[in-house]
Amino acid sequence: MRYAEPVEVKKFGRNECVKSVLVFAVNYIIVLALVSLFIWVNTIGRAGEDFIGYIDGNFNTVIYLMASIFVLFFTIYFYYFFEDKSVLCTVKSIWLIFLLLDVCVVICYFFGYFFNIYSRPIALLALLALTLLGRRDAIFLNVIFALMMFSIDSFSNFSNVNEYENALNITPLMTFSAGMVGIFVASRVKTRIRSFLTGFAVCLPILAMTACLEFDRGQELWYLMLYGLEAGIFSSVLFMALLPVFEVLFNCITDYRLRELTDHDAPLMRELKDRAPGTFNHSIVVAHLAEACAIALDEDTALARAAAYYHDVGKLRQPEYFTENQAGYNPHDELSPELSVDIIRSHAKDGFELIRSKHLPKILADIALQHHGTLPIKYFYAKALKMSDGELNIEDFSYAGPKPQTKIAAIIMIADASEAISRTLPDRTPEKVENAVRDIIEERMDLDQFDECDITMKDLTVIKETIVSCLTGVYHSRVQYPKLKLKRKEEETKENG
């Protein structure tokens, strides 16, 4: 599915360690406060029992509950310490993890309190974590969530207000199995309607365990089975309701959000279509090429498509200075090569700033900044050489960079140049297109543009073949129509009559 907004790689030093431990401590206190709230709610209306009285009478049990939650927090910290220190380096990522846990714990508790323990949306955490953090983290956090719910159910007074003790004993297995089904079923889900249908798959292990545990309850079993169905459906419904909130709060990128951003009615896309139609059409073709390349390389197709749509939005600052938006008049004819270069290369930085100012995912801004790398702008460099007596520093006529940092950024760089050069070819046969695309890739290799990303020679060959195939299909030749003017039947009858 999708993952949280990629973060800049930081070294995990002493400061980061101290900061992460403090954030964990704060979240530990928050969870204890939530558990205290649950215990207090459970004592409301119960004769002869109050919150302080329960704590005094069950002090050892409460300490055991606090210790079990502490062990779970300890486990989370060391999981990320050994598996992905970048999470511990970023406070926002830590808060995302614990907010997911807190929200899901609260929702599951109150569903169990006001409705029925079998109705709790226990797969909600797994679905959210899968979409926002990835499959591996979702599996781990699903285990943590199952154990946390078991600890709260078993070592608080929740059991005193729930008559289904069998369900309390099997809480970890039920939560784990429902979450795992949700993770593996929803991994390939790309639409919201299929996300909703995932709820029916999630409820299967819940229904099976309910039937096994409560088979001796007679007709009441059917009501419990309905509660189990409710648990699966509400897991998917609440997932779809809460996902946009987390997307906005933590600026996460998901397939759903990327599809919304590439809708032609998205604000920047609508502005690009109105003010720079040539750039908009160019971006659509580049998106087609980038998506095909991403599929061929098993990369993130939704991200490649969105990055291609937004890679040239910086041209909105001065759209008339770019060839695809001109209609006969070229304002560069009246400017010096140096000024023209400043205008042209600024669109990469302008795109980065514009995307960030709209609070869109940073990875789209990064690719907009990187898609020309440190390439020279050869047209104006050659023009300046003709007007100059001495040598010129080619870096003064080059993009500022950085070079592509990811494979998708490299794909956008190649697709962007390939689409542009294909429009200039008088002969668009597959052989001519292939030669042009090969020259583009070789030039960028000679200029070390792919040194900072993990792209391989095999990947570049696949990209070349994919782009050639796509461009041949986009700019295919057509049969020339005969120059024959047809007349209306009335006119033809009048002439013959």
Summarize the structure.
By secondary structure, the chain is mostly helical. The protein contains 22 helices and no strands.
What does this structure look like?
Helices cover 69% and strands 0% of the residues. The protein has 497 residues and is mainly α. It folds into two domains: 14-252, no CATH class; 257-474, Hypothetical protein af1432 (Orthogonal Bundle).
Secondary-structure blueprint:
Blueprint: H1 14-43, H2 51-57, H3 59-83, H4 85-89, H5 91-114, H6 124-133, H7 135-155, H8 165-169, H9 171-186, H10 192-213, H11 220-250, H12 255-261, H13 267-275, H14 277-297, H15 301-310, H16 337-357, H17 362-370, H18 378-387, H19 407-422, H20 430-446, H21 457-474, H22 489-496
Helix pairs in contact: 1-3, 1-5, 3-7, 5-6, 6-7, 6-9, 6-11, 7-9, 9-10, 10-11, 12-15, 13-14, 14-15, 14-19, 14-21, 15-17, 15-19, 16-17, 16-18, 17-19, 19-20, 20-21
